[in-house]
Amino acid sequence: MKHPAITCLDELEALFAGAGGQLYGGEAISQLEHALQAALAAESEGATPELIVAALLHDVGHLITGQGDDDVENGSNDHHEAIGAVALAALFSEDVCQPIALHVAAKRFLCATEPGYIKRLSPASLASLKLQGGIMDSLEAARFAARRHAADAVRLRRWDEVAKVPGLATPPLAHYLGIAQRVMVRGSLHAAF
């Protein structure tokens, strides 16, 4: 099934206003809270504006596909990383879209290459790991590491993992959409940002 491209920040804002209130795949926070926490983690580490936007939007594919809170439990992989990256390509460069496209592979890579990483995954993240191809073998890990955006995807993955704290205070969505506006490569601008 082909999903439409996101062509302006208004569409992103509407997506978060709607589906962003749903629980984030087996975690105790909403999709919007998870996105804002990931963006905050990136911003707190001094990431580039492109990586902050990638952190904010890394799971937008879940919103596009309408992932349910129990989809992973029911064995459904929505391939949100690819769907999100393709949908966002009309607005953002590869420096935003490629870390998004690779953040699931980065989890598989870290499980293969970093001792103890898998033990830090939440139960929901462990369950989705199986659906997403499991731990990489050594050849897959070497291929992943050689990709241009692999290091950024690994950073994004780490922010993804820590962005699951119920009640954590974050800047509002408007703050991060303002950053997104500054790194857009084309498309319609939202006048309020």
Strand and helix layout:
Layout: H1 9-18, H2 31-44, H3 49-57, H4 60-65, H5 80-88, H6 94-113, H7 123-131, H8 138-145, H9 150-162, H10 173-183
Question: Structural class of the secondary elements?
Answer: mainly alpha
Distance between the termini: 32 Å
Low-confidence stretches: 187-193
Q: If helices are DSSP runs of H or I spanning 4 or more residues, what is the number of helices?
A: 10
- CATH topology description: Hypothetical protein af1432
| Structure summary, number of beta strands | 0
Radius of gyration: 15 Å
The CATH superfamily appears as Hypothetical protein af1432
User: What proportion strand?
Assistant: under 5%
Shape: globular
The whole-number mean of residue pLDDT values reads 87
Write down the domain tally: 1
Give an overview in words.
The protein has 193 residues and is mainly alpha-helical. The protein has one domain (9-183): Orthogonal Bundle (Hypothetical protein af1432), CATH 1.10.3210. The chain has ten helices and no strands. α3 (49-57) crosses α10, α5 packs antiparallel against α6 and α6 packs antiparallel against α8 (138-145). The radius of gyration is 15 Å and the shape is globular. The model is unreliable at 187-193 (pLDDT under 50).
Short précis:
With 193 residues, this protein is an all-alpha fold. It contains ten helices and no strands. It has a single domain, classed as Orthogonal Bundle (Hypothetical protein af1432).
